[in-house]
Each structure stands twice: as C-alpha cells, then as structure tokens.
Amino acid sequence: MDVGTYKEHMPQAILKQQSLRERLEILADAAKYDASCASSGTAKKNSIGGKGVGSTEGMGICHAYAPDGRCISLLKVLLTNHCIFDCHYCINRKSSNTPRARFTPQEVADLTINFYKRNYIEGLFLSSGIIKSSNHTMEQLMETARILREEYDFRGYIHLKTIPEADPELIEQAGMYADRVSINVELPTRAGLTRLAPDKDEAEIEGALAKTSARIIQAKDERKRFRHAPRFAPAGQSTQMIVGADDANDTAIVSRAAGLYGNFGLRRVYYSAFSPIPDASAVLPLKRPPLMREHRLYQSDWLMRFYGFGANDVADATEDDGNLPLDIDPKLAWALKFRGEFPVDVNRASKEQLLRVPGLGTTAVGRILKARRYRRLRLEDVGRLTQSIAKVRPFLVAADWRPTQLTDRADLRSMLAPKLEQLELF
C-alpha cells in the first residue's frame, strides 16, 4: 500500500499527524509477509436499508480476484511490529534493527473506516507482533474488531490473526467479531520450528487450532438449531507455512498440509516463499527459493482439495529429492510417472479418472460428464469443452481418437512442458 498516493484524498486529521502516516507505511509494509488473508466463504452481510457500514456480499477481500476478474483490496496491517519473540526468519523479531511502530486499536478502526468510505479497501486483515504478552496483544486485536463492529457498525470483512498462547476466552471473543481467524504453524516440521522459532511450540499451536476448529463446528450446529445463535468465525480458519527457510522438502510440506486439513478442517493452507531479510541469522539460507516452488505447492494443494489426490499421490509426483518438479505441474508429473493408468476413455471413465487427466479441470470434467449423456464425444468435442487439447491428447481415448504409442513416448515430458520464451524489452 503506497500511502503517498492517498495524500490529496486522505482525511485532514491524518494529514496533520505525520507520525500516523509514517506508522502506516511501516506497519503496512511489515504485514506483506503474511499471505493468509483471503476471504472466501465468509457469511454475507450488507448495509441495505441504511443500517451499518460496509458489505462482504458477492466478493472476496485482499489479493483475491472476484469471478469477473476484479482485484479485491483490504487494509492489511500490523497493530505493531514490536515483538518479544526472536524467530530467526521474521523481520520483526526482537533482535532485528527494523524501524518500529505501533497503532492503538482506535487508530486502526478509524483508518479502516476512513479508507473504506473512500473506496480504498473493502475490509481489514489485522495481525501483530507480540507486545508485553500474548494475552495483552490478543486483547488489543480483539478490541480493534469490537470497535469496528459495535461502535461503527462495520459489516465488511475482518480477518484477525490470533495468538495460540493467548487465553481461549480472548480467542472466543475475537471469533465473535471476525469473519475469519488464523494461526500460523510457521514451519512444516517440529525440528524446523524448534530451531528457527524457539519461542513457539508446535503442540501449543495445534492445540489452539483444534479448539478453534471445535468452536467453529459448535457455532454451525447452534445456528442450525437456533436461528439467532451468534456466529463464530463464519469464514473458518486458515494457516500459513514458510517455504524454504528450513530443509523440509515438498513431500514433508504437503504431508503437513494434508494433516492440517484433515485434523482441523482448515479453509486454506497458505504457502509463503522465504524471503531473505536484513541482518539475517546465519542459520537461514542466503537466497530465497524459486517462486515457482511456491506455485507448485499451491497447485498440489488444489489437487488435494478439488481433484481427489492424497498427500501420497502428490509425493509420488516429486523428484528424487522429494521436491515437485519446477518445469511441469504436479498433475502432469503424476500422470507421467503412472502412465499405466492412461489413456482413459472419455466416454466411459469415471469422474475420478477424468480428474486425473492432465489438462482437464473440474469445470471441463463436469461439462464432459454432462455432454456424454447425449452423444459419444470425439476429440474435437473435448477440445471445445476444455481450454487446450494439446496436454489432453496423450491421455484420452475418444470416439475418433486413440493416442496409440503417444502415451509411452520417452520425450513426452519435453513435448508437454511449457516452452521457455525470452521476454521482449520493447
């Protein structure tokens, strides 16, 4: 968020308080390392009839895209970047030389409302470093949400980062105000967390995830029985893992993510590629992992959530070092390793089999299942139901098409891998 671009539109009270602008620059920049701020699944709220301020209806918030392609924004900020913890990978650790700043709950609430009314944002993502104690920090986060909901009657999206060490009563209150809550597991392995975040405990983090998950389920059950029962984090909870700060490979990361989904019913597991920071600890890597690695992990996450793949299937798609290939997507990597499963007959294969075909998305599979009720599909028909037929051809049998030896070609990977192109300067 470039605060300078708001200068001629910002409220005069903010312009007069130069220190507030400076704090906003520092704390908005410090929040960019947290990726877990999407808003899919939130309960619909609006201000129709002149009641309340804000709306979450029909769109997502923060670095997400609405169905029509619009980019959705929010105020993504830290309450403070002061912190009593000393996590090696964090730019806000207590031993860091980064500039420090701090907001009060009232200031964050006022900024949110002022920016919302000027159409800069559509919600709030609020996190914080740990100041004084976990309980004190959680009280401040919760108080910000309370002011927005109760004093300003704000009905837009609120995502609060909760603190696993805080008292459950505080997290309970936070969930009553927030659409979504999240607790970062930080690193995929216990060994990595112990080495790089000595102030944090995996058992404590998982305990907090479990309690929040149980409370979300309880609230949903209460809403079924009692129409006016209070909502608790209706958009669920999410988490984030840092990729590349330790030596965990993609097999370990995906296995951890699958366990988090299964054990705690998370809405999303987000991945954030480690980024080298100033005055970094000697135990950290000197350079960041390829951004494509983060992208491949998101693709594997999609396969597990929507395509029926398990963590073991994704692990089977990895290279000898346990990492997913960077030149091809995980679904294609799996298909190339298990060519005996192909080709499948587009007119007879089950939904589960079709979802394993590289190049067929969930929408295309749905269209195929619907269309083949009325006629036998040819390759040309499949081409009209999907975005590209090139990747599909080696893995499908249609009414007029058989790949014969194409599926078993030794150079199939190079044929299907995206071509590298030199970007033009002009």
Automatic annotation (TrEMBL):
<dbReference type="InterPro" id="IPR051675">
    <property type="entry name" value="Endo/Exo/Phosphatase_dom_1"/>
</dbReference>
<dbReference type="GO" id="GO:0046872">
    <property type="term" value="F:metal ion binding"/>
</dbReference>
<keyword id="KW-0479">Metal-binding</keyword>
<feature type="domain" description="Radical SAM core">
    <location>
        <begin position="78"/>
        <end position="205"/>
    </location>
</feature>
<dbReference type="GO" id="GO:0051536">
    <property type="term" value="F:iron-sulfur cluster binding"/>
</dbReference>
<dbReference type="InterPro" id="IPR010994">
    <property type="entry name" value="RuvA_2-like"/>
</dbReference>
<keyword id="KW-0411">Iron-sulfur</keyword>
<dbReference type="InterPro" id="IPR007197">
    <property type="entry name" value="rSAM"/>
</dbReference>
<dbReference type="InterPro" id="IPR013785">
    <property type="entry name" value="Aldolase_TIM"/>
</dbReference>
<dbReference type="InterPro" id="IPR058240">
    <property type="entry name" value="rSAM_sf"/>
</dbReference>
<dbReference type="InterPro" id="IPR023874">
    <property type="entry name" value="DNA_rSAM_put"/>
</dbReference>
<protein>
    <submittedName>
        <fullName>Biotin synthase</fullName>
    </submittedName>
</protein>
<keyword id="KW-0949">S-adenosyl-L-methionine</keyword>
<dbReference type="Pfam" id="PF04055">
    <property type="entry name" value="Radical_SAM"/>
</dbReference>
<dbReference type="GO" id="GO:0003824">
    <property type="term" value="F:catalytic activity"/>
</dbReference>
<keyword id="KW-0408">Iron</keyword>
